[in-house]
Write a structure and sequence with these properties.
Blueprint lengths: L3 E5 L4 E7 L15 E5 L9 E8 L2 E8 L5 E9 L6 E10 L9
């Protein structure tokens, strides 16, 4: 189940940010091993979205572009604390629609 649902146009670029400081209160930074995974509507690993990851202190950011009209993608961000080695997870459902009428366009 997703923590949030985001709509994007197939031609738009959006940023998904995950500040893990509340989930990892003992840590002052996340590791370079912090990452993401992407699943398509069929539940299989997808390459439908173009994603570039970056991190800064306790935030994992994903620059997201592309996507196929009508598809829904599950993006799972995983932040790993440098001190605790615990993992915090945020799941975002990205719905790609060209005629939404409002949203992240």
């Amino acid at each position: 189940m997703a923590n949030e649902v985001v709509y994007k146009h197939p031609n738009s670029n959006i940023t998904l940010s995950f500040d893990a400081s509340e989930d990892l209160p003992v840590d002052s930074a996340i590791t370079a091993g912090s990452t993401y995974s992407l699943l398509g509507s069929d539940g299989l690993t997808s390459t439908g979205l173009t994603i570039t990851a970056s991190q800064s202190v306790m935030t994992l950011s994903l620059a997201v572009s592309g996507g196929t009209e009508g598809e829904d993608y599950l993006v799972t961000q995983k932040a790993i604390g440098t001190t605790s080695s615990k993992t915090a997870v945020k799941v975002t459902e990205v719905r790609v629609r060209s005629n939404r009428g409002f949203g992240n366009y």
